[in-house]
Amino acid sequence: MDNTFIQRKPTAMIVGSMIIPKYSDPKTIYIPKDIQFDMLSEHDVNLTYMQVWRAKEKTLQFLRGHPADSYNKLPSYLYIIEKTYPGPVVVVDGTFLKSAYRGIMLTTSTMDAAGIILPLAYVVVDSENDASWKWFFEQFKLAYGERANMCVVSDRNESILKATSIVYPGMSHYSCMWHIWTNIRAKFKKGHLKLSELYFATARSYTLDEFNEKMSKIEEIDPRVKAYLYDIGYYRWSRVHAMVNRAWNMTSNIAESLNAVTKYARELPIVELLEYMRTLLERWTKEKLLKAKGTFTYLGYKFNKELDDNRTLSHKLRVRASTDYIHTVIDGVRRYIVCLENKKCSCGQFQLDELPCPHALAALRQRDESFEEYCSPYYTRANLLRTYEIPVNLLSDESKWNVPQHITEEVVNLPKGEKRQPGRPQKERYKTYDEINSKKYKVSCGNCGGEGHNKRSYKNAPKMK
Fold this sequence. Notes:
This protein has helices at residues 12-18, 32-43, 49-64, 67-70, 130-144, 158-167, 177-187, 192-203, 208-221, 223-232, 234-237, 253-261, 270-293, 301-314, 349-353, 358-367, 381-387, 405-408, 433-438, and strands at 78-81, 89-96, 104-111, 117-125, 151-154, 172-175, 318-321, 326-331, 334-339, 344-345. By secondary structure, it is α+β, with helices and mostly antiparallel strands. The strands form two sheets. The chain has a six-stranded mixed beta sheet, sandwiched between helices. A four-stranded antiparallel beta sheet has the order 7-8-9-10. β5 (151-154), α6 (158-167) and β6 (172-175) form a beta-alpha-beta unit. It comes from Nicotiana tabacum (Common tobacco).
């Protein structure tokens, strides 16, 4: 703005260098209009829209490089796998990349002893097909291995079913009960409100009697739904029919939550995406390790809370001992048989949750015995500490990388598929009717607490004199 140097003008490179901190985090939304406003208010420089747009492009190119350049730095496949000590239930899923060149990121995750998402592995591939999933599970098996009572939960993708049957023959493969429900809603248009509640209660049933009772009600509403669920296989979506205990993982929600966390990062070029994932796991590992060290209960947070809830319910129960380990527990008019030696209860919750149910806790209290011996070792604080004692591999500066010659000489071609079509890409996934309705905001009254009206429209409010 100095008249002496009137010929000097703010170029895209100069403006771009000034706004670099704004784009260090891919979640930050900083549009050209924001650049215009900040440059005018902070530096008294008035820029056109095209000038700030070029500045933004220069900044992104400096920070993330050109999308095409990323592929020349990489081998054909990329993967990072975390060796951990979690439970044997593995949730797998695939999600679309949103950069200039399309692709798919495949992920596997599980739940740690605190009930929090624990990413196990991720990989970038060209598409979600049989070959990609087979290669991914082969690499996953090398790092994670094959564990006792291990099972996979997915969204019924055919390629996942084929790949796991080849790489992990004989391993149980279960389906996400939510994805099955969306299929039911799309195929059958009868009695959705009644079916929804019944279906999820049926899937979560702890005993065969409870399952059959609810399944008969589903048949009364729409016999086609029962036939459809039978064709899928009860063992794939029902907790009580599962051949291997899937514990608390009835859905693939932990994979969907991981996809939501990486929503903005999936717009980055491939190198930046993988570095974002590495630093994300590095930060999560540190935070979770600190929380684990600050946990002073025998179980992790989620399972300790569940145990406390069961303990509260157990105080109203009456216990009658038959032997040292077999007890009859009376809950109102119902009777339950608890066998502490086999860690079983006739309610089914003790053996399937692998956590003492209210009836088992009532029997333990009468015996004056602690609950620790009757909990799954996967839920303990000790297991939580072992999970996060292995650090994420650190990555030095690129200038210090020792890359083998055969890697540097390898030329990786750009993806063969078409580039992303022009236009603003979709940010959110398409939601089902149930999801849209379940999140509708309900107005409540501050005076009476009722729904459907507020304090202003409250009919029984005293009139002002």
